[in-house]
Every structure is written in structure tokens, then in C-alpha cells.
Amino acid sequence: LLESQKLNIKHALNELYGNNIGQPVLYEWIAHLKSYLAECAESSSREAKRPNEGPCVVATAIPDTALLTTDRLVRLPTIISSNTILDRRSTFQAHVAEVFSKEEVILALNKLKENNKIARATHNIYAWLTEEFVKGRWIRQHDCDDDGEIGAGAKLLNLLELMKAKNVLVVVTRWYGGIHLGPDRFRHICNIARQALVDNGFSGR
């Protein structure tokens, strides 16, 4: 397989995992791999049989997961979800995605909340930071949201800055278990976010 194909498989498996949190995903992974490999084989076969007709122009449809801005096509980022942390019946999970604009942040957040379990969570705290070199200068954008967990969004944004992470969205989902955790909740939020950023190569980029 080409590196691009391996990357496509990795992203697809991560998305399947994110959409089935807390449920077995092995069979879904196997089914996807079989389907993807079959498509690759069929595509290779068609290419081998195609006569040499010279260059051709193919019209490509813009997928529903893309937005067209004045500058560029904005695509749905791949979301990678971490393992969960459980403390006194509260569950925490981090999600990270590479983003380059506010529009991509919105697409990623909407996609994440298509998962009913995540959409129904007590809090979906997030922060994002992008940095782009435009017309000879660096343009930096960032924002955060507590989603009811006061101060948590700012802590995540501060974490991104401390880790020198850029062009990334980090979301921490919390399912409240009925027992107050006090300051420990912020420790869990920052720790699980930090680990997700490190594991996926967003630290010090």
C-alpha cells in the first residue's frame, strides 16, 4: 500500500472508533478494511486496462463535508479520540484534530457531536489555535469554550500555548457521574488533553 492509502485507513479506523465509543469496533474495522482493499484492487485493475488516450480532465464534485471559502476549500478534519479516564463515576475523553481555520473547527465540532453519546455529555470543552503565514506575516487565531465547566476552556488554550501546539483543535468531553471532583476535574481535563496532543504529534510543532 502507498503511504497515502495507509493514512486513509488510519483516519477511517479512528473515525469508526470515535463514532462507536464504548462499543466493540473490531468487526467494523475488519469490514472497512475488506471494503477498502477491494476498492484499491478494483481501481488498480481499471488503471491497468485503461488504453493510452493521453491526458484527460476529470470533474471532481465537492463533498458535503467541505465548505468553499474565498481563499480555499475547507475540508472536514480527521478527529482522533483518546482512551477514557474514570474518576468517581465521572468519565473524561479527549479528541484532537488538525485544523487551519475557524470553519474547519466548526466542521469538526459538528461532526464530533453527531455521536449521540458525546452530544449528550455534560461538557464538551474545547480550545483551538491556528497559525498561518500570509502575505509576509504570521496570522494567529484562537478561541476556547467552557461549555459550562467554568475556566476549563481557558486552561486548554493555555495548554496549547505552553506546548507550542498550533493548527489544532482539542476537545475534552466529560460525563458527570454525580460526585463533585473539585480541582481534580481540571487536572484530568488538562492531563488527558496533553496526552492526546503528544500521542498525535501536536506538541511543539
What descriptors fit this protein?
205 residues; 2 domains; 40% helix; two-stranded antiparallel ribbon; globular; alpha+beta; Ribosomal Protein S5, domain 2; 7 strands
Helix/strand layout:
Layout: H1 3-19, H2 26-49, E1 66-68, E2 73-75, E3 79-87, E4 90-98, H3 102-112, H4 116-119, E5 123-134, E6 137-145, H5 152-162, E7 168-175, H6 184-199
Antiparallel strand pairs: 1-2, 3-4, 4-7, 5-6, 5-7
Helix pairs in contact: 1-2, 5-6
Portion in strands: 25-35%
The rounded Rg comes to: 20 Å
* First-to-last CA distance: 28 Å
Low-confidence stretches: 53-66
Find the structural class using helix and strand composition. alpha+beta
Give the name of the CATH superfamily of the largest domain: Impact, N-terminal domain
Q: Give the number of domains.
A: 2
Strand order within the widest beta sheet: 3-4-7-5-6
Roughly how much helix do the residues carry, as a percent range?
40-55%
CATH class of the largest domain: Alpha Beta
CATH architecture of the largest domain: 2-Layer Sandwich
Q: Could you give the count of β-strands?
A: 7
Number of helices: 6
